[in-house]
Amino acid sequence: MIGNIDNLLNLANDIFQKKELKPVFTQVGTIARYLWDRGWAERNAGNFSINVTGFFSDRELDHLSSYPFFPLSKQYPGLVRTLFLLSGTGTRMRDVVENPTEHICFVYISDSGSAYHIISENQGNTAVKPSSELATHLAIQQQLLQKKSTEKVVLHAHITELIALTQLSPFTTEAAVNSLLWGMHPETLLFLPDGVGYIPYILPGTENIAMATVRGFEKHKVVLWEKHGCMAVGKSLSEAFDNLDILAKSARIYFQCKSTGMEPEGLSNSQLKEIRDNLA
Length: 280
Ligand code: 13P
Ligand code: ZN
What we know:
The protein is α+β, with helices and mostly antiparallel strands. The protein is built from eleven helices and nine strands. The protein has helices at residues 5-17, 22-37, 58-65, 93-98, 134-146, 160-166, 174-184, 186-191, 207-216, 237-258, 269-279, and strands at residues 47-51, 70-71, 83-87, 104-109, 115-120, 153-157, 196-199, 222-225, 229-234. Strands 2-5-4-3-1-6-9-8-7 form a nine-stranded mixed sheet, with helices on both faces.
């Protein structure tokens, strides 16, 4: 039977009630609270996607495939029959804290990888539409699947301390910003030995920023968007958040040292080498 819109509404209800997804919704609320509390999600800033395909059986995915689709602006061959939880465009993280499911939606990619449909808890005027950074989320999620990565989450936030760094011309290259961030705290090198990718300013919400970000994620778990924010991947939303939190700490240490009027010393090359040698 080909699904119709009325049946899709019933299906939405089933998906939002799925008990396996409850812990995911809880984590969404927790991380949204951290982002809001730290001032990293002003107004509607920040968004996330979680690949939840693994929670659904082939039969359930067949069912999803039988509904009408909207065309995507490009084809994602690596995302055929995948289902993502996405934060809604325009939603405030402080509202997500109060009721996660009201501010998220699911996006299902068709059997051809070139169309999608949106599954939202509410319909009509209050239906949730996916984040304006959908192109970047889909591109990174496709890359993670192609790499057979265990990472399923992509998180974007406006980390004030990291945005501030990208406003300072000495730190607007990958080498310079990594050298600074690693030098401020040993944990940064310990947990992010590949450092961050650096993307010079590109208009948000575009295919161009999606393509540049994917290149950044070839070697890194975090990518900085100059004068805008950053994107992180993780096995869970919590892990993606940790990757950003560690970097924010390093940047904060730098600015706190500078506020004394003095230059921070930074870890020496031999101290950094010792950490790297200890990683193996
Ligand atoms: P959305 O509300 O569309 O997710 O946009 C927030 C954002 O940070 C865009 O870069
Ligand atoms: Zn943003």
